[in-house]
Specification:
The chain is mainly α. Helix content is 52%, strand content 8%. The chain folds into 3 domains: 65 residues, Dna Ligase, domain 1, CATH 3.30.1490; 97 residues, no CATH class; 128 residues, no CATH class. Strands 1-2 form a two-stranded antiparallel sheet. Strands 3-4 form a two-stranded antiparallel sheet. α2 crosses α3, α10 packs across α14 and α11 packs across α14. The termini are far apart. The model has no long low-confidence stretch (mean pLDDT 86). It holds the Pfam family YceG. It comes from Psychrobacillus faecigallinarum.
Length: 372
């Protein structure tokens, strides 16, 4: 009987263990199914959320929302601004969408966007700088102007004091702030010993829209600087590879801007300067003499050519210490991509047509033919 009771006890124990194992298996199975179910539900919810965030905020909406994208805004701040204004559902998803599609170069400005726009439409608007709202006025800064001349243009259009504008853009405090904001554009070279004005040649010539009646001089100056930074951005890597600087490029381009009388001549004039620099020959370009003199004369006299000043390329070899005016894109590109010529001389006749020569004798002959 005792042995039988022991067997029964062992049998019962085994039976209970089997039940426990079955129960544990069932519990594990239920938990696993629950986790899978929760994961599937979570994945489904997440998928629908992302899908919704990639879709227009309201496909049936025709309402326009005015959105301001400040100068210097990055993708983080742009995404947050769009979400706050109800143009997109989720800033993080918009940011990832932009990065996954390798989109960049968004333009600052004031946009009238609508909630029925797709992400691609929003991106295209921000990239092209397409402004839906009509500006109150536009300000055109022509090529080939100095800081003082730019101030005069601004005064005529806005009524802002040209003197105060000039004082602002030549002040150490403003220059330092802009250097911190645009480090790739504004390097220590602009503060070189013989540089007349740090920001000379750095205010880009273009037409700028304004949506307020009275922009400040600082807002205008920074808008022009920001455009220069955007214009120069594609060249930063190339300049680094060629061991040249932005300051070198804008200085070179400013000479082309002042000398060229036709679009097609810029690359030829650029080749003349390259050829002269290669043999350590003075550039001898009259606009640098006028800049050195600080005056706007119709003709440069022989006595002017001997004026002692770091900017005078008759008395100094190489490029001047800095730009002598603001240069447009065609001059910038010509400075980077000159024609392959053997010219060392050129002159412009009274109609502005340029003539190029290889030797000084040819040059003198063309002076007799076209200038006397």
């Amino acid at each position: 009987m005792e042995n039988k009771s022991k067997k029964e006890i062992m049998f019962n124990r085994m039976k209970n263990k089997k039940k426990e194992v079955k129960l544990v298996r069932r519990i594990v199975l239920v938990i696993a199914l629950f986790i899978i179910l929760v994961g599937a539900i979570g994945g489904y919810i997440g998928y629908n959320y992302v899908k919704g965030a990639l879709s227009p905020m309201d496909p049936d909406s025709t309402e326009k929302v005015t959105v301001e994208i400040p100068i210097g805004s990055g993708i983080d701040s742009i995404s947050s601004t769009l979400e706050k204004n109800g143009i997109i559902k989720d800033a993080r998803i918009f940011k990832y969408y932009v990065k996954f599609n390798n989109q960049s170069d968004f333009q600052a400005g004031t946009y009238d966007l609508s909630k029925d726009m797709t992400l691609d439409e929003i991106i295209e608007s921000l990239k092209t700088g397409k402004i839906y709202r009509e500006p109150l006025f536009s300000l055109t800064i022509p090529e080939g102007l100095t800081l003082e001349q730019i101030g005069e243009v601004i005064e005529k259009k806005t009524g802002n004091s040209s003197k105060e504008f000039f004082e602002l853009v030549t002040s150490d405090e403003f220059v330092e702030r802009m250097m911190a904001k645009y480090p790739a554009l504004l390097t220590e070279e602009i503060k070189g010993e013989n540089v007349r004005y740090a920001l000379e040649g750095y205010l880009y010539p273009s037409t700028y829209p304004f949506f307020e009646e009275k922009p400040t001089n600082e807002e205008i100056a920074e808008m022009l600087l920001a455009q220069t930074d955007r214009t120069m951005a594609p060249y930063y890597e190339l300049l680094q590879a060629e061991e040249k600087s932005v300051h070198w490029l804008l200085t070179f381009a400013s000479l082309l801007e002042e000398e060229a009388t036709a679009q097609t001549d810029r690359q030829k004039i650029s080749s003349v300067f390259y050829n002269r620099l290669e043999i350590d020959m003075p550039l001898q370009t009259d606009p640098t003499v006028l800049y050195a003199l600080g005056s706007h004369k119709e003709r440069v006299l022989y006595e002017d050519l001997e004026y002692e000043n770091p900017y005078n390329t008759y008395t100094n070899k190489g490029l001047p210490p800095g730009p002598i005016a603001n240069a447009g894109k065609s001059s910038i590109e010509a400075a980077l991509d000159p024609e392959d010529t053997e010219y060392f001389y050129f002159l412009a006749d009274k109609e502005g047509k340029n003539y190029f020569s290889v030797t000084y004798e040819e040059h003198l002959q063309k002076i007799d033919e076209h200038l006397k």
